[in-house]
């Protein structure tokens, strides 16, 4: 009760909180989330995972900012895949059937499952080279009839 009266009367002591020992981290900005490639695979994984979903860890691929989501450490032999040059990486990534495999400076691998482009479009990393392909939707006779009924 006494504290409430002191506050109401404007006489409560004001003690500034010291910043030493504070654990609050400021809001992360996209420009600070670029992937630094000169790290071991575990550090790359932690960086991507730590920035997943906001703001998203990113790298430049084919002159475009691409954001990486859904990483996991990959402890296996190097899988077969199509090479993908990533700006700053000492070794190209591999687009495989499971996603994009990237390499740390220790030679170990990280698997990234999803990629998002600057326009906001997100794709499975395994579909990177087929992202521009468009397929026509073909309806069966039954589906055509249903579509006509709905119209």
Automatic annotation (TrEMBL):
Domain spans labelled Formyl transferase C-terminal:
29-130
Per the UniProt record, the lineage of the source organism begins with: Eukaryota, Metazoa, Chordata, Craniata, Vertebrata
Q: Which Pfam families match?
A: Formyl_trans_C (PF02911)
**An MF annotation (GO) of this entry:** catalytic activity
Official protein name in the record:
AL1L2 dehydrogenase
Alphabetized InterPro entries for the sequence: Formyl_trans_C, Formyl_trans_C_sf, Formyl_transferase-like_C_sf
Signal peptide positions on this chain: none
Origin species: Syrrhaptes paradoxus (Pallas's sandgrouse)
């Amino acid at each position: 009760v006494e504290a409430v009266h002191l506050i109401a009367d404007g006489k409560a002591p004001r003690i500034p909180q010291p910043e030493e020992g504070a654990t609050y981290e400021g809001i992360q900005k996209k420009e600070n989330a670029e992937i630094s490639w000169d790290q071991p695979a575990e550090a790359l994984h932690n960086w991507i995972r730590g920035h997943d979903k906001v703001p998203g860890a990113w790298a430049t691929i084919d002159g475009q900012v691409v954001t990486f989501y859904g990483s996991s450490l990959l402890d296996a032999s190097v899988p077969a895949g199509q090479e993908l040059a990533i700006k700053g990486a000492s070794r190209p990534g591999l687009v495989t059937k499971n996603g994009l495999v990237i390499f740390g400076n220790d030679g170990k691998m990280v698997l990234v499952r999803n990629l998002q482009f600057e326009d906001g479009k997100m794709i499975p990393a395994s579909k990177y080279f087929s992202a521009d392909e468009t397929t026509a939707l073909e309806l069966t006779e039954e589906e055509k009839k249903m579509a006509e009924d709905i119209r």
